[in-house]
């Protein structure tokens, strides 16, 4: 073990009998290996602190830490890209907001296989929505200012709006990754309906939704149909993605029918005129979780 951990240490260890290795203690004036390591980490002398920590960390922690940094950087780059496109008037503000809405959830889900199979992997992944929620709280409470972010992800360009839909969105991401993670179809389908289904419903409905629903003049027939189709397709694609990687098992003979029922339930909830009371970013994923749990249970069948 010592020789493997310390290259070149095998010969030195071989020069002492094993009994001596077990009983030998360093001279009183010599610092212990642990204290020497601590001094190096604190003073930055010899081996750099980051390299020393990396060498001592388990492989799963290194993988999860690297994945967290990569996904966090990607999430920031996604929002910042559409900030710039909105500022330069290359993308309409309403379209930019919904594209970010769709891509944030989809790409975050797609990144889950980058994390290890360890029990702590989900907590590393949860760092990404947690940091985004802190960011939204910071700007929403006007503790700091980011006008580009406000313009790209809010309807009216007011910082306070960050504390509603956008914050609810990242909190659902946080809840889903902690409770369901990639081993459960419930979280996968719920995020697919919230990000893809609800997102495309707004994009298509705003452009072509002249025929409104009789019980909700803020929603259109074409928007609701788009939500059902896009939510169903994205859910199927994401289930196929995770099943192909071995995260879940899918019995496709039954899965399509169940996905259609889940998409129908989510679409019905999105149509109900209660947006002023319950945000779609809360009602849609919660309804989806409930129906998916009743149909799928904890694993696809």
Automatic annotation (TrEMBL):
Parts forming coiled coils: none
Record field: catalytic activity: phytol + CTP = phytyl phosphate + CDP + H(+)
Subcellular location: Plastid, Chloroplast membrane
EC number from the UniProt entry: 2.7.1.182
Keywords: Chloroplast, Kinase, Membrane, Plastid, Transferase, Transit peptide, Transmembrane, Transmembrane helix
Superkingdom of source: Eukaryota
Protein's pathway: Cofactor biosynthesis; tocopherol biosynthesis
GO terms assigned for molecular function: phytol kinase activity
Transmembrane segments: 41-61, 98-115, 162-181, 221-243, 255-275, 281-298
Chief site of localization: plastid
UniProt topology in membrane: Multi-pass membrane protein
PANTHER family: DOLICHOL KINASE, PHYTOL KINASE 1, CHLOROPLASTIC
Protein family per UniProt: Belongs to the polyprenol kinase family.
Protein name: phytol kinase
